Structure formats: C-alpha cells, structure tokens
Fold this protein.
Amino acid sequence: MALSADERVRDVRFSEDSLIVDLKDGRTISVPLEWYPRLAAAAPQQRGNWEVCAAGYGIHWPDLDEDLSTEGLLRGAPAPRAKAARSAKRPARGRGKTRRG
C-alpha cells in the first residue's frame, strides 16, 4: 500500500514560542513564532482566529491580514521581515584582507 503526502492543513495551534501546524497526512510542522512577527505580536484570540485557505494548503488570519502556506512552512521559510531582522542581528563577517605587520 502506497502512502501519499497530503500537505493540507488539519489544525493550527501555538505553544509559548512556536507555531504548530498539523497536516492531513499526519505530519506536524513546528516553527519558531519569532519567524512571523505579526503572529508573535498578536493576542491569543487573534492567533486563534484562523481559517484554512488556498484549497487547504494555506492558513489565513483575518484579524492580522497574515497568510502562510504549508509549502513555505515545510521549506522552513520565515516571513521576509523576520528574515531581515535575523540577518541584522548577526555580526558582520570580515571579508576584507587583514594587514599584518
């Protein structure tokens, strides 16, 4: 019997620091909440007001105007704003030549 992947959303929940999405095929995706600043800053009732969209492959939070796809979650793609903020926190790597002497 062949198993098939079904990446559609079954359920969405939150822990203190994670977004957790259960898929119809039994997999669970857990990603850092800090990757999604709108969700991280939202009140619990706003986070809880989500709906499935995009034929089951997306999640929409109408109170926050936030949309995520299961494809992006599976790829480990943070929101562009979160990605830029993480890059800004990293120390710059030296690429220039070091003078000796």
User: Anything to note?
Assistant: The longest strand covers residues 9-14.
